[in-house]
Specification:
It is a single chain. By secondary structure, the protein is α+β, with helices and mostly antiparallel strands. It contains nine helices and six strands. A three-stranded antiparallel β-sheet has the order 1-3-2. A three-stranded antiparallel β-sheet has the order 4-6-5. It starts with a helix and ends with a helix.
Length: 187
């Protein structure tokens, strides 16, 4: 398969997929290309989209890619088919921020930081697949550890957790920081 055909296949597969496709999945679909080769194909496609003023790009999400429209067009897209926004309560936002910044973390640690029971917000975040069970701690009782998911990265358009702003970047009290970090992209 030549490079032009490979680019067309990457474009078609990403266009058709509602889910994030990992770089390994794309490499397999393309007949065993190396992940670096897939990344170069994606870069070439994005360069072409930008050069021709397309309204979409291929975004890196976690260890994969997803085709999305550019954020500047969300107002018009919402008029055609309004998306159901992810609504999270203040406690759920706080728990999500703690898990994102401190993962893997046990519920007891989250509760210690918040000062209240977190079982409800954690259950809601698990239902929304923004948080996952990341294993068990080795401490007595082997408490469950929580971490964020690929859906979390996708919701906030992050390629990985390193893209989260550091708490030092905010000149706000911790409560306000948690809210600002989590609602900036959810709007």
């Amino acid at each position: 398969m030549n490079e032009q055909d490979a680019r067309k296949i990457v474009e078609a597969v990403l266009f058709a997929s509602p889910e994030v496709l990992t770089i390994k999945q794309l490499a397999t679909i393309l007949g065993g290309l190396r992940p670096q080769q897939v990344a170069l194909l994606v870069d070439d496609l994005n360069a072409e989209y930008e050069k021709t003023s397309r309204t979409f790009r291929i975004f890196g999400v976690g260890e994969g890619y997803q085709m999305r429209t550019l954020p500047m067009y969300k107002t018009w897209i919402a008029k055609t088919e309004p998306l159901k926004p992810v609504r999270l309560s203040q406690p759920a936002l706080e728990v999500l921020a703690i898990v994102a910044y401190r993962q893997p973390i046990a519920r007891a640690e989250v509760e210690q930081l918040r000062g209240v029971d977190c079982s409800g917000p954690l259950r809601r975040l698990l239902e929304l697949k923004l948080v996952r069970i990341a294993g068990k701690d080795k401490s007595p009782g082997r408490p469950i550890l929580y971490g964020t998911t690929r859906e979390f990265l996708s919701l906030f358009t992050l390629q990985d957790l390193k893209e989260l702003p550091t708490l030092e970047e905010f000149d706000l009290p911790v409560q306000d920081t948690v809210q600002q970090v989590l609602i900036q992209d959810v709007g």
